[in-house]
Amino acid sequence: MRPVLIQFGEIALPFYGVMLLISFICAILYVRKAAKKFNISLIMIENLAFYVMVGVIIGGRLLYVIFHWYQYENDLLGIIRIWEGGMMFFGGFIGALIAGIIYLRKEKTPVLKVADIIAPAIALGTFFTRIGCFLNGCCFGKPSNLPWAVKFPPHCVAVSSLVRQYSLHPTQLYSSIFGLALFFFLNKMLYKPHKIGIVFSLYLIFSGAFRFGVDFIRYYENAANFWINQVIAFAIAGIGIILYTKASQTKH
Prior knowledge:
The protein is mainly alpha-helical and 252 residues long. Helix content is 62%, strand content 4%.
């Protein structure tokens, strides 16, 4: 665990923030390259990237604060210190989805066509951001005796005094590896002949199913947070199945 990359006096450069920035940069570069092949305006992609980035930050932070209010009720300014970590993937995903749909509809651009291009980039972003989570010490798993289980230091974000005594599942790294594998799969699907919406629907199905499964070994402060994430993951996978079915039935 290494929450801070570089520190000069009281000024610190957090590793989580660095990995988040890297994920955005890599995602934008990937989408720009793919957009050329699929005849989508690069200017529109750059504008979309801005809206999506804002959606990710606001949505991810907002959902995290809602479910971890005890961390901020006496430190309201801490809500805006996103570089310290504290983002919820589903909040960021939903925020980005809403922002992206609004912008694309405004530009009268097919949402699913662009979503197919963005899907592999989201998976790639997961690879980087979950490494950031691991280095920050958040989003960890339940106690485990497996050889690769990790024992986090006492100052780890949100670790209870009980959990500190054990080695834990590195669920952040599980998610990171999954994100990288999903990226390669979706990238391959994108550049094969496919119907519009198929690639994005596959992202929804696999990412929702994986999150639903990995949450059973991920540590949650309370049962409510666990069940809310389970419901969202199940819903995302379900929407993906519906979208895949409809996309498969459409004619070119």
